[in-house]
Design goal:
By secondary structure, the chain is mainly α. The protein contains 14 helices and two strands; from the N terminus they run αββααααααααααααα. The chain is globular, with a radius of gyration of 28 Å. One of its GO terms (biological process) is transmembrane transport.
Length: 323
Amino acid sequence: MSSATASVETSPRQDADASILKRLSLGIAGRLVIIVPYLWLLFFFLIPFVIVFKISLSQTAIAIPPYTPVMDFSDGISGFLAPFKELSFDSYIWLTQDALYFNAYVSSLVIAAISTVLALLVGYPIAYGMARAPASIRPTLLMLVILPFWTSFLIRVYAWIGILKPEGLLNQFLLSIGVIDDPLIIINTYKAIFIGIVYSYLPFMVLPLYSTLEKMDDSLIEAAKDLGCTPIGAFWKITFPLSLPGVIAGCLLVFIPAVGEFVIPDLLGGSRTLMIGKTLWKEFFSNRDWPVSSAVAVVLLMILILPIVYFQHVQARTQERGR
């Protein structure tokens, strides 16, 4: 009897210990889930940004690396901290004195904004059609959207050269059906840049829109129609406002990389195209002016952080309203 009583008495203790261990394991797992993204941002964003920012405060030098001062760890802490006294903002002052950089920033922002609007106009009907398609074929449509990612980005851009050049596939097709009499000059123009950016980043617009539209309750549209709303009116009053989170996410996913795009303007836009990505590449590789190119990159990052902060603010407000 005594042993049975002891076993009964110890079972609640064992349950308590087991629950404590379970809570500890869940707590550790929860902390790891939070810590891993922060470590990722630390090693792949914050530390590289600090290095680039430090180079932007240096001076150009004919050496390896081509800037001074360089951190020297051989002399301990004093050798590491001494070069900080020699840092300057000359590269940032140079950016304000040369109109080339200002024009490159403005041109990049304008091209990225126009490309984002075009991608939205093309991507919204695609995402809407996918969300309204039968559930059995939605995975196939989704696969077709991401299918271009299975091919190299550079190869896809080179393919557009063969399509858009004067003797390319597009002009040959239009000439054969009699739509035009002379080849269209599209390559090495801003039109080619818009086509290349919209084509390359269209999946980034379609996927957030599709995710948002797919979750929308169709009964809202039916209720609007029962109350006398036209299909177009129901779209603008119900569907589009509810899809705004997807619209904002898609626009950011297209706009941010399009601002710093280098490959598409260089291959499709020609040498006359002025964008900040090409300017940064020339400063880094052609002029080997690492401080100025780093300053260009830091300013570009500061410009792109603004829409990200705005998006997070909108998302936070949306979540508060949902609660």
